[in-house]
Write a sequence for this structure.
């Protein structure tokens, strides 16, 4: 068994540096030369309507790359027997999927069947950074999309409670260094966090102190006022006061003991990471240079096998859909009523889910890009919480069954 898991572990590590897929800069030069401008436009339009979009896309790409490599597994919907990453524990805090789905539609109409969803997400993450005033870079291309997405695997994401050795391990398992860890953590210059992601630091920290002493007292007081013990639904704070602008404020805040997560503060706990954080705090240029280098590294962790047509469905699901659509239409031709046919094909559920998703998205008025606190209606809710993860992030603990199915 031990040998077997060692073998699975090795296989998994190899699959992260997937030898099958090599990326290149000019991958679509002949087959879809305009793909990047199409994606850029889709991202820009969405971001114009909704300032939350850039942060969402950057984080989505990170989550994608950390589970099964950057293979767009984060975009797949749950289906019958399978709960996808999307619906796993950090689910509510990932949003903006529609931006990628729309970009894909535009790209499909220009170059059908050519561009992977994983590449579109990588472009979109870069565009999100550019739109927020950050650097631009050439994204390596040619990722393939995966077929598998499992909610249970979101436990492999680093948690905001992680200490420096846990963070180092989580990154090292993906071939990423301490420098990558410090530079990529700078992604927290954008966006929003729910109370559930840091409430362990401001209530019942441990048996001797209620508040994590590594948080500046005035900042702790602000956080506690936004996030009372029974926290308001969807309440939270901006990641930094300039949360729509890509800058190096994040690093300055860490040194002022105003980092939001233990995992941010943990960057001060080893000499190497502390030096890097200090360099980035004093030079936006050094930060952006390092960020670009590390983004290219992270986004080159590959893992997929195919080019999906719809970013939220793998080919197997699409085939099933087409078959059920044919049978569905046949049902009408047989003279049955809509309700009868819908019932026998579960279509009313499909409709309902789509509506649900739209509703979730549009009701998310949790943002306030000017500054900090957003309180909304009462009632406790844990959202986007992977702080409860007892796992140390060791991907090699991944269930053998899912490996068997997908990797062997
Ligand atoms: C180092 C380990 C990391 C941990 C533990 C971590 C954890 C978190 C948590 C808990 C949130 C708040 C979720 C919520 O409550 O809604 C968050 C948000 C965010 N993270 Fe990270 N993260 C990490 C690395 C990264 C990386 C590498 C990036 C990208 C380069 C990134 C980009 C973001 C962004 C942009 C947001 C804001 C999302 C939004 O506003 O929609 N994070 N992260
Ligand atoms: C999010 O995940 C939790 C826990 O896994 C689950 O109970 C909840 O239904 C999910 N929510 C959504 C919107 O998928
Ligand atoms: C980090 O956390 C792990 C798991 O809780 C623990 O075993 C380890 O000793 C901690 N390391 C440091 C440097 O605090
Ligand atoms: C609680 O946390 C503080 C600060 O990190 C530490 O000094 C103290 O020893 C901790 N107490 C317990 C019981 O772990």
């Amino acid at each position: 068994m031990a040998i077997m898991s060692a073998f699975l572990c090795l296989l998994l590590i190899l699959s992260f540096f997937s030898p099958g897929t090599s990326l290149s800069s000019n991958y679509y030069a002949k087959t879809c030369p305009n793909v990047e401008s199409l994606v850029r436009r889709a991202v820009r339009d969405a971001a114009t309507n909704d300032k939350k979009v850039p942060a969402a896309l950057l984080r989505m790409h990170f989550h994608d790359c950390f589970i099964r490599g950057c293979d767009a597994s984060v975009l797949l919907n749950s289906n019958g027997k399978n709960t996808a990453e999307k619906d796993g524990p950090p689910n509510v805090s990932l949003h903006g999927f529609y931006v990628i789905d729309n970009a894909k539609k535009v790209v499909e109409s220009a170059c059908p069947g050519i561009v992977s969803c994983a590449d579109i997400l990588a472009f979109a993450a870069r565009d999100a950074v550019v739109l927020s005033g950050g650097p631009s870079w050439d994204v390596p291309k040619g990722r393939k999309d995966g077929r598998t997405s499992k909610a249970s695997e979101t436990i492999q994401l680093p948690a905001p409670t992680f200490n420096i050795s846990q963070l180092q391990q989580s990154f090292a398992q993906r071939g990423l260094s301490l420098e990558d860890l410090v530079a990529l953590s700078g992604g927290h210059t954008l966006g929003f966090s729910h109370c559930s992601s840091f409430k362990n630091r401001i209530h019942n920290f441990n048996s001797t102190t209620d508040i994590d002493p590594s948080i500046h007292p005035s900042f702790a007081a602000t956080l506690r006022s936004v996030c009372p013990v029974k926290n308001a639904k969807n309440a939270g704070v901006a990641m930094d006061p300039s949360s729509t602008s890509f800058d190096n404020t994040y690093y300055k805040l860490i040194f002022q003991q105003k980092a939001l997560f233990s995992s941010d503060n943990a960057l001060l706990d080893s000499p190497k990471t502390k030096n890097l954080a200090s360099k980035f705090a004093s030079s936006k240029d050094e930060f952006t240079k390092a960020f670009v280098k590390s983004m290219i590294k992270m986004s080159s962790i590959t893992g997929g096998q195919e080019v999906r047509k719809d970013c939220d469905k793998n080919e197997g699901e699409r085939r099933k859909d087409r078959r059920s659509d044919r049978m569905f239409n046949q049902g009408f031709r047989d003279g049955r009523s809509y309700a009868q046919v819908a019932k026998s094909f579960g279509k009313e559920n499909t409709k309902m889910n789509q509506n649900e998703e739209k509703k979730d998205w549009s009701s998310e008025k949790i943002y306030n890009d000017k500054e900090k606190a957003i309180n909304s209606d009462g009632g406790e809710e844990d959202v986007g919480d992977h702080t409860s993860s007892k796992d140390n992030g060791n991907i090699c603990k991944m269930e053998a069954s899912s490996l068997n199915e997908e990797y062997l």
In short: Residues 315-362 form one domain. The radius of gyration is 22 Å. The first strand starts at residue 192 and ends at 194. The chain has a mean pLDDT of 80.
